Structures are given as C-alpha cells and as structure tokens.
Amino acid sequence: MTPARIMIGPATREERDWCAALMAGSEPWITLGRDLDQCHARCGDSDYLLWVGRADQRPCGFILLHPRGLAGSPYIASVGVAEDFRGRGVGTLMVRRAEEYFSAVARHIFLCVSSFNPRAQRLYERLGYTRVGELPDYAIDGASEILMHKRFDRP
Ligand SMILES: CC(C)(COP(=O)(O)OP(=O)(O)OC[C@H]1O[C@@H](n2cnc3c(N)ncnc32)[C@H](O)[C@@H]1OP(=O)(O)O)[C@@H](O)C(=O)NCCC(=O)NCCS
User: SS in 3 state form for 65-111?
Assistant: First the structure.
C-alpha cells in the first residue's frame, strides 16, 4: 500500500470507535494514562475534527485537529497510524493534508509531542515543525510535552 492509495476523510461513527481503540492501545497514550473512555471522549468531542486515512476503505490511521486550539491557531491534537501501516508515509500524508486545509485560513499551526516519543518528533521535524516550548511534567510527572510550531508560507 502506498500513500497514493490512502483516502482521507471525516470519521464515521464506527470509525470514531476504531480511532479511540487505536489510541487507547498505543503509545504514547498508554504511558500518558489515557484509558478507552477518555479516548472515546476525545475522539467524539465535537469541537475537534477527526479525519481517518483509509486503505481499501478500511481505516489505517487518524488525525485529530482543533481549528483554533492554540492562541487562535489550528492545533494537531493527535496523530495515530495502525501498527502494520507505520513507516509507509501515512502519518506524513495526514499531517500534510491538515496543513493544506488550514493554510488557506491560518498563518500558523501548532502541536505537542511527548518528550519520550522520538519517532513522532522526527516526523514533525522532517515536516518543518520547530520546538518553541517545553512543558515539564505537563501530562504526567517525569515527562514533558514539547510545543512545536510551523508557519505557513502565504503570499
Ligand atoms: C508517529 C506516527 C504517527 C508516524 O506515522 P507513520 O505513518 O509511521 O509515519 P511515516 O510513515 O510518514 O514516517 C515514519 C517513518 O517512515 C519512513 N517513511 C515514510 N514514508 C515511507 C515510505 N513510503 N516507504 C518507506 N518508509 C517511509 C519515514 O522516513 C519515517 O522514518 P523514521 O520513523 O525512521 O523517521 C506513528 O508511528 C504512530 O502512530 N505512532 C504511535 C502514535 C504516536 O506516537 N502519535 C504521535 C503523537 S500524537
């Protein structure tokens, strides 16, 4: 499966459950102590956009977005890819799609990544995000949330 064959769109009701289960069963959310109920609540929150990446019509990843989540700018709240689809460009594709969507209406985009999640940090750095802050002991003691920012090129 190549990224060219991944279709991205708003999650259906059933897909919301799939996203919550993926979140609850994956790092970093396990270490952050987010249980299935909390993941359901987050994935069902109507303030957020939840998009799903589909391969052959079956979900393989999700991205959770708040249109004005940080200082009035779009905020990428979570990105998750099913384990057997990782390392094939699905995460990159979903972040890029979110950027395309928001760059028409915003100048900046933000996200947070856990200090113990080097893979996700690499992904965001590769996509042009830079560290602008660190929140020690934010979600759990002993780990930071690293705030990252990207400025859109706008004419
Ligand atoms: C972090 C995460 C979202 C990345 O998604 P992904 O789909 O694996 O990301 P990509 O495939 O776009 O990029 C990841 C790697 O695959 C490589 N890659 C990208 N496209 C590729 C392709 N077509 N073929 C082969 N490798 C590819 C990248 O070079 C990258 O390598 P690296 O991890 O060694 O830096 C995913 O690992 C995940 O769901 N992790 C658990 C949840 C999480 O940590 N979420 C982020 C915090 S909110």
Answer: EEEEEECCEEEEEEEEECHHHCCCCHHHHHHHHHHHHHHCCCCEEEE
* Distant-in-sequence, close-in-space partners of 148: CB < 8 Å, separation ≥ 6: 110, 111, 112, 113, 124, 129, 130, 131, 132
pLDDT digits (tens, 9 = 90+) for 68-124: 999 999 999 999 999 999 999 999 999 999 999 999 999 999 999 999 999 999 999
The continuous run of DSSP H or E covering 31 comes out as: none
CATH code of the domain occupying 3-151: 3.40.630.30
Cα 24 to ligand 1 centre (Å): 18
- In the chain, where the domains are located: 3-151
- Which helix (H) or strand (E) is 53 found in, with range? strand 49-55
CA-closest residue to ligand 1 atom 34:
119
Count of Cβ atoms closer than 10 Å to residue 46 Cβ: 6
